[in-house]
């Protein structure tokens, strides 16, 4: 395992590499207000077959938080910059929510570098709800700090069943800590990108294999929305994770890992 900072353009991104050298590359991209640690439940499974690169999206975790607003083009170029710096010619890319949206941008604009994508719990558009919700969340983060976002965010990200089961307290606390550690400027920068998200009209141009995965109870990227995204993407697969809400990889890791490992083995 190696971890450290890599300079991409004018700022540094925190990275962590696990799995055997020589295995095909798989890059994992985090959701808004988390960091690369959100993928911990997947690491044992995915490193059996892949060399896994996790990174903290700009403005998150230990990566730099340059002044916003950011655009998805920035988040996409960061990934290509990391691949260049690490001499990764081609990789499979999996992202959840903000990371899943980044996956769409990579599939559309860099199909020569990205072999296939897994787009989890992500939309491709900015509905009216996003245009109202994100300015309010940015204001709250700036005025009250990230701590004020922890409770309402955990409520959106995990089902009631998961949140009320005491055995899940460590996962909830770890996720709450990631939210608290996120830089306000980084959160605001990425939330601004969400307000201008506009990949939906281009999904029919995706020309690499794609798998859309969503938690059954995801309120942010509901299954009916992601089913339509998959239908608009040539040859795409679509899977619902039963019982999970937004962070489906944390809420149902066994189901999530089986689905991902099976798809990676056959696509
Ligand atoms: O925070 C949410 O509820 C939804 C979300 C949008 C982008 C992301 O990463 O999470």
List the helices and strands and how they pair.
Layout: E1 2-8, E2 11-18, E3 25-29, H1 40-46, E4 51-55, H2 72-85, E5 91-96, H3 98-109, E6 114-120, H4 128-144, H5 147-157, H6 160-163, H7 169-181, H8 184-195, E7 210-215, H9 223-232, E8 237-241, H10 248-251, H11 253-266
Parallel strand pairs: 3-4, 3-5, 5-6, 6-7, 7-8
Antiparallel strand pairs: 1-2, 2-4
Ligand LWBT4IAB binds at residues 31-32, 97-98, 153, 156, 194, 220, 246.
Protein name: 3-oxoadipate enol-lactonase
Domain AB hydrolase-1: 24-253
Keywords: Hydrolase
Description:
The chain has a single domain (2-266), classed as Alpha/Beta hydrolase fold, catalytic domain (Rossmann fold, 3-Layer(aba) Sandwich), CATH 3.40.50. It is 44% helix and 18% strand. The chain has eleven helices and eight strands. The protein has helices at 40-46, 72-85, 98-109, 128-144, 147-157, 160-163, 169-181, 184-195, 223-232, 248-251, 253-266; strands at residues 2-8, 11-18, 25-29, 51-55, 91-96, 114-120, 210-215, 237-241. The chain has an eight-stranded mixed sheet with strand order 1-2-4-3-5-6-7-8, sandwiched between helices. Helix 1 packs parallel to helix 11. The chain is globular and about 45 Å long. The two termini are 27 Å apart. Bound molecules: the ligand O=C(O)CC1=CCC(=O)O1. Residues 31-32, 97-98, 153, 156, 194, 220, 246 line the site of the ligand O=C(O)CC1=CCC(=O)O1. One of its GO terms (molecular function) is 3-oxoadipate enol-lactonase activity. This is 3-oxoadipate enol-lactonase.
């Amino acid at each position: 395992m190696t971890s450290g900072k890599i300079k991409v353009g004018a700022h540094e991104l925190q990275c962590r590499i696990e799995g055997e050298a020589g295995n095909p590359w798989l890059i994992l991209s985090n959701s808004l207000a988390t960091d690369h640690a959100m993928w911990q439940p997947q690491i044992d499974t995915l490193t059996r077959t892949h060399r896994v690169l996790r990174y903290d999206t700009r403005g998150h975790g230990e990566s730099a938080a340059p002044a916003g607003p950011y655009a998805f083009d920035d988040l996409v170029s960061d990934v290509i910059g990391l691949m260049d710096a690490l001499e990764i010619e081609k990789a499979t890319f999996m992202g959840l929510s903000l990371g899943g949206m980044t996956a769409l941008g990579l599939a559309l604009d860099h199909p020569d570098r990205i072999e296939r994508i897994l787009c989890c719990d992500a939309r491709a558009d900015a509905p009216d709800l996003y245009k109202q919700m994100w300015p309010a969340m940015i204001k709250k983060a700036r005025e009250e700090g990230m701590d004020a976002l922890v409770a309402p965010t955990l409520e959106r990200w995990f089902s009631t069943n998961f949140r009320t089961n005491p055995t899940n307290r460590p996962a909830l606390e770890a996720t709450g800590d990631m939210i608290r550690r996120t830089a306000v400027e980084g959160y605001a920068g990425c939330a601004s990108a969400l307000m201008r998200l506009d990949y939906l009209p281009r999904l029919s141009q995706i020309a690499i294999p794609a798998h859309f995965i969503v938690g059954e109870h995801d309120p942010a990227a509901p299954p009916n929305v992601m089913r339509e995204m998959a239908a608009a993407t040539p040859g795409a697969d679509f899977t619902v994770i039963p019982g999970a809400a937004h962070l489906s990889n944390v809420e149902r890791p066994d189901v999530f890992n089986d689905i991902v490992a099976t798809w990676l083995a056959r696509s």
